[in-house]
Write a structure and sequence with these properties.
The protein has 2 domains: 2-166 and 359-380, Glycogen Phosphorylase B (Rossmann fold); 178-354, Glycogen Phosphorylase B (Rossmann fold), CATH 3.40.50.2000. The chain is 46% helix and 16% strand. It contains 15 helices and 15 strands. The strands form 3 sheets. Strands 5-3-1-6-7-8-9 form a 7-stranded parallel β-sheet, with helices on both faces. α12 (306-312) links the parallel β14 and β15. The radius of gyration is 21 Å and the shape is globular. It starts with a strand and ends with a helix.
Length: 381
């Protein structure tokens, strides 16, 4: 079959993008032809993918998104496919992969009445309704039960249209027990001493991921503990504001910013603690990658994948509403008690030995194939 995927932008280091690639490759390995609609593709093309660049048009995100969906709809009229799988909300999707939170729920929590009168609000809400309303037939792949609860609360979407996926990380990269085998070797290659605490944060969009919160927690550490810490922030974003903040807090010599890297599994094996105090995070694939790497985590409760960490007892989940003092104390306690870091790491390894951390791509491919066959049968009839 000819299976089409749509996402606004592809770059190698985003969680949404990595999920898309693994799912599309799983479908391709089953013999299907893969078409990708995107406005921007960074990095190497996937072998065999037919990548169609959608022209950008509009001065704002919501107008560009509207043009994106209309262009694809027009293109498909003359270039039909068997199924369209979307990674951003838009009309015309057969399947939507919910890599984002419920926009209506977020707006209701964080915005006032005047925001609901803006063109941006109306445009985003219209796109979300096209997927989740009771008049839609779009099947929905969700990563957490909370996503389904939020969407159902606002749109009364039938539960039969939701499909909850298990976590799904790259089995070839995040190998079980890699931490035990390669940790010392990787730290030596990175120039990290055995008595240094290597703290890591991974994710694009530094503001949403809470990088300032992490910097505040490190700055709050007392000497000499602070001098034993180095903090790497890895992600596709402009670090200028955050580097300046680190300088203001007197920790610039402890903090290092890196654009997206290919060696995240190795960095996780070498690190002592992952910080992820996100303001908003529908799921957070990086949390599952840390879990599979036996890397302890301190994250916020808003992260959709936080319950996995709680179940594994492999770190600390900061409850909402967020308290910077609470987060600071959690980081301090973890570093003051290295034996706790070891216990969390061992707990993560036990959890992954007993649970499937890799099944998402194949589960999604099963649902996509089933839906494509249904659409083909309905079209024939």
């Amino acid at each position: 079959m000819k299976i089409a995927f749509s996402l606004h932008k592809y770059f190698p280091y985003g969680g949404q993008q990595r999920d898309f690639r693994r799912i599309a490759v799983a479908c391709q390995q089953r013999g299907h032809h893969i078409v990708v609609y995107t406005s921007e593709w960074q990095g190497e093309k996937c072998p065999g993918f037919e990548v169609i660049i959608v022209p950008k048009k509009g001065i704002s995100n919501h107008t560009r998104n509207h043009h994106f969906s209309r262009w694809i709809a027009a293109y498909r009229l003359n270039n039909p496919d068997d199924l369209l799988v979307g990674f951003n909300k838009m009309p015309g999707l057969d399947i939507y992969f919910a890599a984002d939170v419920c926009f209506a729920a977020k707006a209701a929590r964080e915005k006032g009445y005047l925001y609901t009168l803006t063109p941006r609000y109306r445009s985003y809400l219209q796109a979300e309704k096209a997927v989740f309303s009771t008049h839609s037939n779009t099947e929905i792949l969700v990563l957490t039960p909370q996503q389904q609860a939020d969407f159902s609360a606002f749109y009364h979407t039938p539960s039969t249209r939701f499909h909850l996926l298990s976590p799904g990380i790259d089995r070839q990269q995040f190998l079980p027990h890699q931490r035990n085998v390669y940790r010392d070797e990787i730290r030596h290659a990175l120039g990290i001493n055995t008595d240094t605490f290597f703290l890591l944060q991974v994710g694009s969009d530094f503001r949403r991921k809470g990088v300032l919160r992490s910097l505040e927690a490190i700055a709050a550490l007392a000497s000499p503990l602070k001098e034993k810490v180095i903090f790497w922030v890895v992600g596709d974003d402009n670090p200028a504001v955050y580097r300046k903040y680190a300088e203001k807090k007197g920790i610039a010599d402890r903090v290092f910013f890196h654009q997206g890297r290919e060696d995240i599994p190795q960095l996780m094996a070498a690190a002592d603690l992952l910080l992820h105090p996100a303001h908003q995070e529908a799921a957070g694939i990086v949390l599952i990658e840390a879990l599979a790497s036996s890397l302890p985590v301190i994250c916020t409760e808003v992260c959709g994948n936080a319950p996995y960490l709680s179940d594994a007892e492999s770190g600390v989940v900061i409850s909402e509403p967020f308290s910077q003092d609470h987060f600071n104390q959690a980081v301090l306690n973890a570093l003051k008690h290295p034996e706790q870091l070891l216990l969390w790491s061992q707990a993560a390894q036990r959890y992954c030995d007993q649970h499937d951390m890799y099944g998402l791509p194949e589960q999604a491919a099963d649902i996509i194939e089933k839906r494509a066959k249904y659409v083909a049968t309905r079209t024939t009839l």
